[in-house]
Request: fold
Amino acid sequence: MLPTLPLGPLALPTAPLVYILGVWLALFAVDRAARRLGLDPETHYALAAAGLLGGFLGARLVFILLHWSSYDNLLGILWPLNSGYNTLGGLLIGAAAAFFYGRWRRLPLWPTLDVLAPGLLVFLIAVSLADFLGGPGYGSLTGVPWGVTQFGVRRHAVQLYEALVGLAALGAWWTATSDLTGFGKPVRSQDAGRPFLWAVIVYAGGRLLVDAYRENAPLMAGGLHVVQMVALGVLILGLIALARIPREQMDPSS
Reply:
């Protein structure tokens, strides 16, 4: 759509700019979420930063290891940094970095996930917008008026659909936290985890529907969409966990 942003004689790639903005907004969202839920914003901000840094380095390192034969010098490994990343490797290493940092700071699981949820959703929205501007993904053919022209034909704006799903999940998180006793006070133990799970359920359910309109989705044997199958599994696990929270976290003294 808009792969580069012309600035006089320069042409800046838009996707990296959106990623940088997404990182800043994600960290800001974590800070505001911690304050809303009555938890320490600095500790959770540092946790999110550790996860993002670990994810960035991990995605780059995994890509280099998988394509080691393509690099003939050290400069090619270090630069350029605007291409060559492995998404799965970044997610796994970023999650591991956040997990071990949380263990080191002895942060409780469910309240921490509640704080991190808005930041993760904001970053996912940024990824969708970067994909829309950069054009690596595209939707299936359509005749609907809100479609976009790509490769000379009318297609579903699937990346924008994904961004809307992220906004809906943020709304679910906000609604769930509005029912708590937070707003600057520590959340009750029996309520911890609900905002995160509602956000996950809404986002996974939305991606389950939206990815049906993605033309270049990765496929499993039998033609099943990988993202849809993952979203379905996450949706089911989220619903099960949400149903178990009242029994596992109920505090009779509250």
Q: What stands out?
A: The chain has a mean pLDDT of 84. Residues 4-244 form one domain. The CA atoms of residues 113 and 196 lie 6 Å apart.
